[in-house]
Amino acid sequence: MHADGQSFHDVIVIGSGPAGMACALTAARGGASVLLADQRPGPGGAIFRVAIPGVPPVSLARAQKRLRDRLFAGLENTPAIQRLPEHLYLGLDADGLVMLEDRKAGQVKTFRCRILCLATGAMERVLPRPGWTLPGVMTAGGLQVMMKETGRAPAGRTVLAGSGPLLLAVAAQLARLGTPPLAVIEAGDPLRQLSAGLGLLRWPGLCLEAGGYVASLLTARVPWHRGARLTGIEAAADGLAAQWEDRHGRVHTLAADRVALHDGLAENSFGLAPSGSSQNAPGHPLVLHAGDCREALGAPAAACSGETAGEICLHVLAGRTEPAERLQQRLKTATSRYGKMQDLIARAFSPQGGAQHFTALPDDTALCRCEGRTIGDLRKLFTADPGLSGRELKLNGRFAMGACQGRFCAANTAAAVAELTGSSLPVSTITGHRWPVRPVPISSLIRLEPGKADHAEEAPQ
Ligand SMILES: Cc1cc2nc3c(=O)[nH]c(=O)nc-3n(C[C@H](O)[C@H](O)[C@H](O)COP(=O)(O)OP(=O)(O)OC[C@H]3O[C@@H](n4cnc5c(N)ncnc54)[C@H](O)[C@@H]3O)c2cc1C
């Protein structure tokens, strides 16, 4: 307990994926008092998502299974870690209080700590396309989560489109569960990127995993169209019609029940206080980012960066302070070899014919789903005022103004601006940093925690 009556922990870790679990284990084993919170009911994060009771866990590659078993056993055997499932991190308030929403109780709780380690993972990137907001269109990662939780593949005809190795993984999982997709439409062509492919041979486990996915697709006769792009989706009498263009510019249509899109992974760092910051104010914790929310490099790198963050926690708690840049460097060095691997994967899957995407989109393509703003609206704004700032784009154009506050559209909006105007607009200039990082009901904010002082009159910022 802190002097001001707030619950106190040496370290609060947000996110119980590989990074958060590794950080909590390292810090707790070194004697720190640790609180590990996650919005989900169980640990595991995106990769080790636990199936609903009665459903056997999905099969994992050997190295992934070893990592999962090690982290889960560690968590079971370290009762010193206080776990707080179904608690959503909302942010740090102006007094340095960590705000968590207890989702079951519908109540915001506040905590103090010396170090706040944010390990909130990655989120999927999905580029806008005509028809991408239609019912039946989802993300490939969302489809994968459904299969991990239920152990079943959805019935019907599925098309996977976009770019990246996750498309292959999801296609193979669908095939292994007995419902192979109609096709995988991949913008890149990893089989033609010889030097990247040769470089990746330094990671034999990864190559074996990828080979296993390709073998599943070959066995199930799933076409893997490389150097191809999905140009639009339309509602049809019996579901959806997905138009795609092959590497020679020929246009094809596939009738499907669902289209699952994926264009890569990006850090889920939306609205988070920067890593290394202690906001230079008394009572504020040191903030660290670990795992994919720091840099989306995959599960082994996430565990490695979580361990390093845990070691940093122990150093800081022992009174050994380091400048923020040194802390950042330590986290970067720990995962540098995984960075090289991800660079090669990105090269292998780089879209054929260049990365331009937004220029070719018709004006009525939705860009901001919450506010119904289109690429045409964006073009009009910049034609009228080419020097528009991020804040003006938000306030005048209503981009990133809706319920998600830009969590889903700001990165695409910034990329569209860069492509259309040639000038870069950092995402944070559109969204800013503030809490809550996710929408929270007012009833949760004003509901008092038993035994705590009445903060209801203090307006949140
Ligand atoms: C959709 C998806 C599918 C993937 N599929 C694969 C795959 O097939 N193979 C593969 O090798 N890698 C896959 N990855 C990548 C892999 O999951 C990650 O590299 C790895 O899990 C990163 O670990 P992490 O601990 O950094 O984050 P995560 O494992 O993502 O864990 C982050 C945790 O933080 C929690 N969280 C996030 N925000 C909040 C908040 N505000 N409050 C409270 N809790 C919060 C989440 O619930 C989650 O449990 C996938 C990633 C995604 C996003």
From TrEMBL:
InterPro entries tied to this protein: BFD-like_2Fe2S-bd_dom_sf, FAD/NAD-bd_sf, FAD/NAD-binding_dom, Metab_Enz_Cyan_OpOx_G3PDH
Keyword list, A-Z: Oxidoreductase, Plasmid
One Pfam family of this chain: Pyr_redox_2
Ranges for domain FAD/NAD(P)-binding: 9-191
Annotated GO MF terms: oxidoreductase activity
Name by which UniProt lists this protein: FAD/NAD(P)-binding domain-containing protein
Protein's organism: Pannonibacter phragmitetus
